[in-house]
Amino acid sequence: MNAQKRRAIFERLAAAMPNPTTELNYTTDFELLLAVVLSAQATDKRVNKATAHLFQIANTPAAMVALGLEGLKGYIKTIGLFNSKAAHILLLCQQLLDKHGGQVPNTRADLEALAGVGRKTANVILNTAFGQHTIAVDTHIFRVANRTRIAPGKTVLAVEQNLEKRVLKRHKKNAHHLLILHGRYTCTARKPRCPTCIIADLCEYPAKTAES
Fold it and tell me: What is the pTM of this model?
């Protein structure tokens, strides 16, 4: 895909979604961090349902630690992998208290040193909480980048690096959210909605779905 076509794709997506953001519900950086950790292999809708109750009881590292392992599990048991996530979250909260004064750090190294936080989660926090121009590649972005040929790659890291190189600076802050939302609601996994897609004429996917 050439640069002109790629630029046009992001211009259209940005025009259609002028204020894209995460669909996870949160009010603080800490709540966002926990919600993102919980969202691994789980839907935002399910995470939001659980955190709506959890954050009323515990929305600081200290309060989360005080809740304890079994107490935390009780709030997140509807989310996949809740046992390991609960253990990671409590360790993460203790790390925040011990090393960062209870605050969420704003560097990749510090974030990735936290329990349960990998590169993708760190990228989400750096972008959404701190406004950095990072692109967190999840399954939606991986699919859209490869299917449209915006930034193809065989691995998540390869796609991230290709997007970093190819997305114009003015779109980098929102590229993560634009691509996720496009993948979640239009460029879906099983049956992409190509007939109503606003970038269908620019997309290089060879197996576009037809009008039904």
Answer: 0.90
So where are the chain's domains? Answer: 3-20+134-196, 29-128
CA atoms lying within 13 Å on the CB side of residue 187: 25
Q: Quick check: 26 and 35 in contact, CB under 8 A?
A: yes
Residue 29 falls in the annotated catalytic set: no
Q: pLDDT per residue over 22-60, tens digit each? A: 999 999 999 999 999 999 888 999 999 999 999 999 999
Q: CATH top-level class for 3-20+134-196?
A: mainly alpha
Average pLDDT over every residue of 170-199: 94
29-128 has which CATH code?
Answer: 1.10.340.30
d(CA 104, CA 59): 13
Side-chain-facing half-sphere of 191: CA atoms under 13 Å: 5
Candidates 36, 38, 19; CA nearest to 124 is 36
Set 120, 169, 172, 173: catalytic member: 120
Residue 212 in this model has a pLDDT that exceeds 80: no
* Residue 59: partners with Cβ closer than 8 Å, 6 or more residues away: 27, 28, 30, 31
Catalytic site residue from 45, 98, 110, 138: 138
201 among known catalytic residues: no
